[in-house]
Amino acid sequence: MYRRILVPVENGPADETILTHVARLAKLCGAEVVVIHVADGWVARNIEQLNLRESEEMKEDRAYLERVVAGLRGGGVKAEAVLAAGDPAKEIGAAAEREGCDLIALATHGHRLLGDVVRGSTATALRHLTKIPVLMVRAEKL
Predict the structure, then answer these.
(1) Domain of 19?
(2) Is 0.70 surpassed by the pTM of this model?
(3) Which among 39, 65, 70, 142 could bridge 44 via Cys, Cβ 3.0 to 4.6 Å?
């Protein structure tokens, strides 16, 4: 059914819900998981144009992604990480296409209190930016 699943994470409580759900789905389908975090601070949005170094926030994001991927692999799921920078919806859509993903799975809770990756506006924007299906799972822990 699915071969590669892109999972946007924000380094917050909702991540556990989507990662648990996707790990089970990936095992059932024999799919690989690509975990993505989109850094969207000033440095992240201007890193290429201004030839900047990664900010401390971006370094922490990279370390978080490495821990997430290690946890998935430890559970028997093939996984890799992508740290992107810029507008979350655009970067998630572009990464899904670039990484050959056939599903984007993200956490939501129906309100606008979490960060950019799980906001309804990002999920809605994703539907318009890519033809790849978007699976939204309601977060259990906030």
Answers:
(1) 4-138
(2) yes
(3) 39
